[in-house]
Amino acid sequence: MSHHHHRGQWGTRAGFILAAIGSAVGLGNIWRFPYMVASNGGGAFMIVFLLAMLTAGIPIMILEFSIGHKTHKSAPGALKALNPSWEWLGWLQVFTCFAIVIYYSVIIAWSLSYGLFSIQGLKWGADTAGFFTKEYLKLQDGFSLSNFNIGVAIPLIIVWVIILVSVIGGVKDGIEKANKIFMPLLAILVVIILIRGVTLPGALAGLDYMFKPDFSKLTNPKIWIDAYGQVFYSMSVAFGIMITYSSYLPDDSDIANNAFMTGFADTSFSLFAGITVFSIIGYMAHTQGKPVAEVAGSGGIGLAFMVFPEAINSLPGLNGLFGVVFFLVLSFAGLTSAISLAEVVISSFIDKFHFNRKKVSIVIIIIQGAISMVYATGSGLSILDIVDAFINNYNIVVSGLIEIILVAWVYKLGSFKETINTVSEFTVGNWWDFCLKFLTPVFLAIMLSLKLINDFKTPYGGYPTWALFALGWSMPVIAFIAGILLAKFKDRQPDIPHQTK
Q1: C-alpha to C-alpha distance for 353 and 360, rounded to whole angstroms
Q2: What value, to the nearest 5°, has the Cα angle with vertex 160 and ends 155 and 161?
Q3: Contacts of 292 (CB under 8 A, 6+ apart)
Q4: What is the Cα gyration radius of the chain?
Q5: Nearest CA among 69, 53, 17 for reference residue 416
Q6: CA 30 to CA 41: how far, in whole Å?
Q7: Mind listing the pLDDT tens digit for each residue in 297-316?
Q8: Distance CA 82, CA 65 (A)
Q9: pTM of the model
Q10: Please, which residues have CB within 8 angstroms of residue 21's CB and are 6 or more apart in sequence?
């Protein structure tokens, strides 16, 4: 069985779990989760979210951990090992990661810039929304690639250098080390913000709004769709990430336990972030004399770069310090996720073509870095908005749905169950089969259908149709084509003579 050991392995179990949590805990936990809770009846959403975590998030994570652990390959090779005709699906996930990390890096670059603005005497001034869109991003109406913005480009290059250094080192020397630095720092910083947030006047009104359950919302399909969607997004399942990371696990690793720990940590982080965000929203409502719901209404990226700077302005003291801490939290959470997205792409090419890790890392990161400069233009935010919406709603949900149907119905779960139950402290039983065979695919299929109907009825974000086709609908289409084409290439054999045993 020693054929795969030249691939490198995690140095410690903690290293793997930290990296998995680092991947799962990303920007989505910080601004997407609180917004989802607020718009879906507070505590009622929390209940559905935890249900979704137990019936979809953790079962899929256990499945993806066991696919990687069993095959010792990244997504395309792993799916090919299960069935030779499934390799394309792995490459579809690789393309998705390739596209996501290109815009993800941009948001991290904004966070770094804002960390710097915090030290420079809260450079964003009183009109935080105006500063973000006009002065910092220099946005223009319509779509054109003019107005190249050096203020975004420089931090963006720094982000790519950090990602490159982390992936060149490979799993043990690069990714594990990066996560062992970033994740403990992230945890400490989050606790600092949490304490500061909860002790502000008006914080309790914000928390009341976040957690007070509106059970009438439970009959609305939107809350269920949003909860399952958020679990997918938040746990980074169906991206190929968890298959790739677990492919570096030693043979006797406890799969079920690792998945539960990762899911639990991810949920806890979302909760902490939510409590912090809503404490601060409660505080802002208190100082502005507005209802909490009105302040909370602005979710999405604007929450971090328009609402938060405004909150930082109004703090009673240590504003700059708090600003730096908050934007470092965003940056670290983003970086650990970006590293995992980049690793999926790089390891997939190494596994198939046996390229040298250093060379392939440099080439791919330079290509991605060059494309990412599109986002440093006057149309950057609009392009990012469309690409992000379509990739999250279509690429991830579609590839997740296909992956689960193929593995649960065609390949059958039996052999995975045996492996999991041999290496894990607690065993997976029929609940696991039921969730993967029926519950999750049904939810995903309904989510997808409703999204499609909705997107055909009303164009997303009111953007022109050509832009939605060029930047939005093209994403799943290119991903499918790329997947099928890459799977057609023959695997290259490694250039090393077979050692005599």
Answers
A1: 10
A2: 95
A3: 205, 206, 208, 209, 278, 281, 282, 285
A4: 22
A5: 69
A6: 18
A7: 655 677 788 888 888 888 87
A8: 14
A9: 0.89
A10: 183, 261, 262, 265, 266, 269
The rounded distance, in Å, linking the Cα atoms of 465 and 470 is 9
3-state secondary structure 164-215: HHHHHCHHHHHHHHHHHHHHHHHHHHHHHHHHHHHCCCCHHHHHHHHHCCCH
Domains of the chain (ranges, CATH numbers): 8-488 (1.20.1740)
Would you tell me how many other CB atoms lie within 10 Å of the CB of residue 333?
A: 26
Residues 6+ apart with CB under 8 A from 272: 190, 191, 194
**334, 104 in Cβ contact below 8 A?**
yes
> Residues with Cβ < 8 Å from 155, sequence gap 6 or more?
109, 110, 112, 113
How many CA atoms lie within 13 Å of 475's alpha carbon, on the beta-carbon side? 29
Q: Which amino acid type is present at position 373?
A: M
Mean pLDDT computed over 425-450? 89
Does residue 184 have a pLDDT over 80?
Answer: yes
Query: Residue 497 and residue 448: Cα distance in Å, rounded?
Result: 48
Cβ of 199: how many Cβ atoms within 10 Å? 10
Amino acid identity of residue 14, one-letter, is A
How does DSSP classify residue 1?
Answer: -
- pLDDT interval class at 2 (50, 70, 90): very low
Question: In Å, what is the CA distance from 407 to each residue of 85, 263, 433, 463, 481?
Answer: 13, 21, 11, 37, 22
First to last CA, the chain: 13
Q: Give the pLDDT confidence score for residue 192 in this predicted structure.
A: 86
Q: Coil, helix or strand for 359?
A: helix
Q: Which two tokens stand for residue 89?
A: 């699906």
H or E segment and range at residue 419: helix 414-423
Cβ-contact 460, 470 below 8 angstroms: no
Q: How is residue 20 written in tokens?
A: 């998995």
How far is residue 391's CA from residue 226's CA, in Å, rounded to a whole number? 15
In DSSP notation, 234-303 reads: HHT-SSSHHHHHHTTS-TT--HHHHHHHHHHHHHHHHHHHHHHHHHHHHHHHHHHT--HHHHHT--SHHI
CA–CA distance, 209 with 37 (Å, rounded to integer)? 9
Query: For residue 326, what are the contacts with CB-CB under 8 A and spacing of at least 6?
Result: 118, 193, 308, 312
- Distances 443 to 96, 218, 224, 400, 435 between C-alpha atoms, Å: 21, 15, 8, 11, 10
Mean predicted confidence (pLDDT) in 132-154: 86
Q: What angle do CA 303, 309, 315 make, to 5 degrees?
A: 120
Residues, the chain, total? 501
Cα–Cα distance measured from residue 6 to residue 172, given in angstroms and rounded to the nearest whole number: 12
Amino acid identity at 396: I
